[in-house]
Amino acid sequence: MKFKCNQQSLTKALNIVSKAVTARTTIPILKGILIEASDNGKLKMSASDLDITIENSIDAEVSEPGSLVVPSKLFGDIIRKLPNEMVIIESEDTNVVIRCRNSEFTIVGFSSDEFPTINNIEDESEKITFDKNILKSMISRTSFAASIDESKGVITGILIEMTSDQLNLVAIDGYRMAITRENMINRSEKKVIISARIMNEISKILGESDESVENINFFISEKKAILTIDNIKIVLRLIDGEFIKYRDIVPKESKIKVTVNRNDLMESIERASLLSKEGKNNLIKFSITDNLITITSKSEEGYVREDVIVNKEGEDLEIGFNAKYVLDVLKAIDDEIMVMLFNTGISPCLVEPEEGNKFEYLILPVRITNN
Predict the structure, then answer these.
(1) Number of separate domains in the chain
(2) How much is the pTM?
(3) Which among 96, 114, 132 is the end of a domain?
(4) DSSP 90-145
(5) 238 and 136 within one domain
(6) How many Å apart are CA 291 and CA 309, to the nearest integer?
(7) Mean pLDDT of 278-304
(8) Is 305 helix (H, G, I), strand (E, B) or coil?
(9) Which of 65, 236, 350, 362 is close enough to 177 for a disulfide, judged by CB 3.0 to 4.6 Å?
């Protein structure tokens, strides 16, 4: 194998592909990146952790077609440190020689025979097209609410639900739930669950992809899905199982409605949480009276009180929250004004937009003691 290509193009492609490399694996070949140089002037790089596989192709001057697996971290570090000039790479058995200007490296690679085979499922009838930026935004509005406990099964994933006229993403971890919606015409109704960790990697790739490319294609089979965007292909394993019936969890009615400026509330909670972090459970207390939310928190280090002006409909209420769970929701919302719906001090709070149904967030309270 022998080829040459631009250092910047190679670096950008490696940055994307290496997101599928995991250090946790006990399989040495999965710590590498498969490089395939073909005589049609294309260089394809692939990496996999068996849950997600990423391929990226760039243009190259190929003089000898071939393939080899290179150690991801070492190879990537070398390429990133080279000057922005043409890089010449060739293999000698399983050794890889890298030359650029006055630099020459020789590193040990692996045979490509043991690298996982990637099966294609791009059936045109299964193709769904998403707006790249909309999907990226929806991932950021939901992924934080998925469980990070690997033993929790389906709730470590994000439910992607396609109805006839809508795309819904849902995540839940037992303490909060995130639902985000966008209007979209779908040819068929589908539900799949994809790991939130993988969805976050997809979001990063969407952010690094060519700005001129607006749409991504999504192909779904029973066990896996493929996303393609420009010259990038992402193959990912779906999570088996039935997602929680999330619609049954959302309160159907509320006794108290609070309309509040999101940024004012967020800044007040951030200040209050400076003390709540020193106490137990990161606890803050909301006292909702008249047109005011009084946020308090105390620890052995001191006491804080913050007042936020709101528009309240309904009775007064005292309720406690883990400050982090509320802040995660507020940081995911773009709207200037939002609505918080309450029933009792021990029932969940529902956060909605002032108008429409673009998002819904459910936050479980923490029991508070009056002392």
Answers:
(1) 3
(2) 0.90
(3) 114
(4) EEETTEEEEEETTEEEEEE-B-GGGSPP------GGG-EEEEHHHHHHHHHHHGGG
(5) yes
(6) 6
(7) 87
(8) strand
(9) 362
Q: Which helix (H) or strand (E) holds 359?
A: strand 359-363
The whole-angstrom separation of Cα 118 and Cα 50 is 10
The pair of structure tokens assigned to 108 is 């040990």
Q: Across the strands, what pairs with 54?
A: 47, 234
Average pLDDT over residues 232-244: 94
Q: Which domain range does residue 215 map to?
A: 124-247
**Looking up tokens 């002032």, which residue turns up?**
354
With beta carbons less than 8 A apart as the criterion, state whether 136 and 200 touch: no
User: Angle at which helices 7-17 and 196-208 pack, to 10 degrees?
Assistant: 160
**Same structural domain, 103 and 139:** no
Find tokens 């507020």 and name the residue: 330
Both 138 and 243 in one domain: the answer is yes
Which of 247, 274, 304 is at the close of a domain? 247
Which residues lie closer than 8 Å to 211 by C-beta, 6 or more apart?
A: none
Categorize the per-residue pLDDT at 123 as very low, low, confident or very high, splitting at 50, 70 and 90: low
Phi, psi of 325 (to 5 degrees): -65, -35
Beta bridge partners of 164: none
Query: Can you tell me whether residue 166 is helix, strand or coil?
Result: strand
Q: What is the pLDDT of residues 309-343, one digit of tens each?
A: 999 999 999 999 999 999 999 999 999 999 999 99
What's the CA angle centered on 356, arms 354 and 357, to 5 degrees?
105
Q: Which pair of structure tokens corresponds to residue 46? A: 């692939």
Any domain includes 338: yes
Radius of gyration of the chain (CA): 25
pLDDT at 92: 87
